[in-house]
């Protein structure tokens, strides 16, 4: 009977296996049998969780290293196309870069020359990433500057880039009705200039009068706001000098060298513009002998010409084509009548022209009523599907046609 009781009442008669903790000498001091068993169970549980926690920390650390690594994980994806023809062309010569077409009628195409990589690989990049950074838009590109005694003059870069290309405001390149609005006379009135820069949408092109004041300061403010800009050059009108465009007017009877010097003075007043626009000039733009050297200078310096459309006999379009100068012409002057209703009606006429032809150009001056009307109309035109674009977007560029 005593032997049976040692088997713990098991009906099988199997011997009872004792835990080492069943012995008092092996049990931790101060713990009963149940408490000692708990210690071993909790120790195993803690060890498992400690190992799991360390594994989680290692995984998170590895993920952080991958996320913060500069290359190649944070570089925009590129599509690489390699062909035998590309390899041989790369080995022979590096092709000259080309720039977006700014003519009307569709999306701009950016052709990227093959980089200097082994195997002649051609890298195709996202064109939307090539836009000008507005944070530095007020800073001139030193490769596009000729330093002279009278000031900086625009010039083509050694790689062929033009101010017309570099300082142009990006646009969508989409098909559809496009309107370029150019507001001139900036720099003449300080308050009017400030209001135009502050209130006009950045898609509106601003034209600076060469005879204005504080032009460099105003240019920088306009560029920081995102505006494309052009320079207004005084050209001889009919009834000159009774009707006087201002200092250093280019005239029909002046020697070509004298007119060149006067043009250089106007061009040196600011930087970061895509081209020039005539200020008056009814007589000058009809004289071929005067216009030829004038357009020769624009071509040499990579600038466009914007005709304000005031002279029906202007030779500018033909001269621009012959001299390979980017060219645009205004369709309507919107504020010959300084009435808000009349200005809005003219802008509606511009919209109809754009819908019929694909694009249209409106010009005006930095009067308060003009600035207010244009600001209102641009917001409404956008909702009607009209894209407001910089003047360079609708210019005919013979070098890209």
Automatic annotation (TrEMBL):
Residues 1-22, 89-108 are annotated as: Disordered. The chain crosses the membrane at residues 50-68. SUPFAM superfamilies: Glycoside hydrolase/deacetylase (SSF88713). GO terms for biological process: carbohydrate metabolic process. Keywords: Membrane, Transmembrane, Transmembrane helix. The keyword Transmembrane applies. InterPro entries: Divergent_DAC, Glyco_hydro/deAcase_b/a-brl. The keyword Ribosomal protein does not apply. PANTHER family: DIVERGENT POLYSACCHARIDE DEACETYLASE SUPERFAMILY, UNCHARACTERIZED YIBQ-RELATED. This is Divergent polysaccharide deacetylase family protein. It comes from Neoaquamicrobium microcysteis.
């Amino acid at each position: 009977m005593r032997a049976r009781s040692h088997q713990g009442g098991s009906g099988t008669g199997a011997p009872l296996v004792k835990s080492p903790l069943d012995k008092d000498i092996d049990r931790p001091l101060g713990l009963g049998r149940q408490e000692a068993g708990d210690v071993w169970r909790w120790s195993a549980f803690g060890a498992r969780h400690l190992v799991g926690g360390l594994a989680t920390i290692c995984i998170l650390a590895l993920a952080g290293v991958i996320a913060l690594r500069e290359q190649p994980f944070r570089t925009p994806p590129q599509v690489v196309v390699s062909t035998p023809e590309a390899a041989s062309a790369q080995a022979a010569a590096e092709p000259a870069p080309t720039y977006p077409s700014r003519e009307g009628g569709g999306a701009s195409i950016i052709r990227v020359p093959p980089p200097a990589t082994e195997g002649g690989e051609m890298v195709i990049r996202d064109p939307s990433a090539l836009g000008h950074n507005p944070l530095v838009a007020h800073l001139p590109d030193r490769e596009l500057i000729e330093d002279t005694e009278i000031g900086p003059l625009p010039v083509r870069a050694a790689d062929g880039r033009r101010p017309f290309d570099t300082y142009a405001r990006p646009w969508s390149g989409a098909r559809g009705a496009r309107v370029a609005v150019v507001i001139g006379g900036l720099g003449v009135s300080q308050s009017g200039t400030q209001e135009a820069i502050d209130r006009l949408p950045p898609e509106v092109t601003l034209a600076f009068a060469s005879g204005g004041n504080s032009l460099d300061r105003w240019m920088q403010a306009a560029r920081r706001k995102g505006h494309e800009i052009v320079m207004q050059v005084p050209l001889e009108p009919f009834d000159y000098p009774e009707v006087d465009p201002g200092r250093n007017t280019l005239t029909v009877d002046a020697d070509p060298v004298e007119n060149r010097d006067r043009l250089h003075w106007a061009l040196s007043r600011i930087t970061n513009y895509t081209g020039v626009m005539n200020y008056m000039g009814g007589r000058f733009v009809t004289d071929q002998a005067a216009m030829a050297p004038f357009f020769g200078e624009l071509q040499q310096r990579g600038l466009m010409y914007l005709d304000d459309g005031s002279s029906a006999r202007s030779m500018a379009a033909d001269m621009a084509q012959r001299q390979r100068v980017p060219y645009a012409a205004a369709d309507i002057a919107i504020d010959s009548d300084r009435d808000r209703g009349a200005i809005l009606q003219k802008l509606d006429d511009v919209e109809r022209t754009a819908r019929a032809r694909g694009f249209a150009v409106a010009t005006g001056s930095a009067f308060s009523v003009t600035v207010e009307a244009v600001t209102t109309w641009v917001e409404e035109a956008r909702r009607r599907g009209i894209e407001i674009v910089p003047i360079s977007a609708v210019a005919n560029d013979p070098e890209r046609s």
